[in-house]
Amino acid sequence: MENVVRGRVWKYGDDVNTDVIFPGKYTYTVRDEADMAKHALEDLDPSFASSVQPNDIIVGGRNWGCGSSREQAVTSIRRAGVKVIIAKSFARIYFRNAVNGGLLPIACPEAVGALQAGEVVEVDLIAHTITGKAGTFSFPPLSSSILRILEAGGLVPMLRRQLSEAGAAGQGGNS
Amino acid sequence: MGKTFAEKALARASGESEVVAGQIVDARPDVALSHDNTAPISRTFYSLGIDRVKYPERLAITLDHAVPAPSTLHAQNHAEVRQFVAKQGVRNFFEVGRGICHQVLSEEAIVLPGELILGSDSHTTHFGWLGAFGAGVGRSEMAAIWATGELWLRVPESILIVVDGELPPGVTTKDLCLKIIGDLGADGGLYLSVEFTGGTLESLSFDSRMVIPNMMAEFGAKNAYLAPDDRLIEWLRGKASRDFTPLYPDPDASYLAVHHFDASTLEPMVARPHTVDNVVPISEVAGTPVQQAFLGTCTNGRLEDLAAAAEVLRGRHVAAGTRLLVIPASSRVYMDAMAQGYLTTLMEAGAVIGTPGCGPCMGNHMGVPAPGEATISSANRNFRGRMGTRDSEIYLASPAVVAASAVTGVLTDPRELD
Ligand code: SF4
Question: N or C: fewer beta carbons within 10 Å in chain A?
Answer without folding.
Answer: C
